[in-house]
Amino acid sequence: MPHPATWLRVTEAGLYCDPGDFHIDPTRAVPRAVITHGHSDHARPDHGAVLATAETLAIMRARMGDDRAGAAQQAMAPGEGVMRNGVGIRLVPAGHVLGSAQVVLDWQGSRAVISGDYKRRPDPTCAPFEPVACDVFVTEATFALPVFRHPPVEQEVAKLLESLRLFPDRAHVIGVYSLGKCQRLIALLRRAGWERPIYLHGALMALCALYEELGVALGPLLPVPLSKRGAPPTLAGEVVLAPPSAETTPWARRLAEPVVCAASGWMRVRQRAKARGIELPLIISDHADWDELLATCAEVEAPEVWVTHGREDALIHALSLRDVRGRALHLVGLGEEDEGEAAPVETAPA
């Protein structure tokens, strides 16, 4: 039985399956790609053939255009399988964003699971992570330090609702990434009883509409209203979602004395929140925290774990104490849009 290290290797374009002749989340255009999810550090344009979930393909088309989301596109439902040159390929939910999937590869009796990005907390907008036993588990390590232990999301949403109650004369503008975090926070607010319209920066409208088309109900959403020069600020007491750092642009001047918020796992780091001028940090992450990374590696029972990006050294050391071999893959280009930190701020029309 060949070890996955004999048939999975790192190339300049990313992780490559030799017998299957395809890449997983390649960082440049390749002839054949399997894509775990729609974030742009994992889903790049101009591949020849693309295999992904139907939701991920829809997200890629929405973000890249039909002509750049793969010359040939094959949608595969979770749990379904295909064969490529003797390699079995399955997609299993990863719990990261809508359509996100782990890639399960079987060849000649050995199995590798490539997680992509994943989280273990419940999310009303996507299917939950499903652990799969394997010989090699390829994991992210975005928050692989013991300091990163995410609180319950209900606690963070309650903080936001309490601030809305205490400051009814101020708009609450929350920095969120356009794919995943935006829709998840909307769904969490709905579950917490917020029934009023939620106002969106123009850069967030399209993907929210796509989520609705794909069956994820988000409730009443409205664009932030346009205002004439010199008009009084608006939306006091309302929830406003925008790309990270949009509150520092002229766009925010139309809002009533905004409470600047951010929803991110990085809000655990007080210096980062302070440096960004965040008044209300909300620790809401779409990635597994330290304990969840270790628990997931134990659940999949893999004797060897490869780490694609993030805090590789800390995770590999912790796994070695559990008699699990670790290996850092040093894939270039992954994690660049993590938690929206590197997402460009798009300004709505004036």
From TrEMBL:
The keyword Cell membrane does not apply. GO terms for molecular function: exonuclease activity; ligase activity. It is an enzyme of class 3 (hydrolase). Keywords: Exonuclease, Hydrolase, Ligase, Nuclease. It comes from the Bacteria. Its EC number is 3.1.-.-. The keyword Oxidoreductase does not apply. PANTHER family: BLL1145 PROTEIN (PTHR11203:SF49), CLEAVAGE AND POLYADENYLATION SPECIFICITY FACTOR FAMILY MEMBER (PTHR11203). This is Ligase-associated DNA damage response exonuclease. It comes from Plastoroseomonas hellenica.
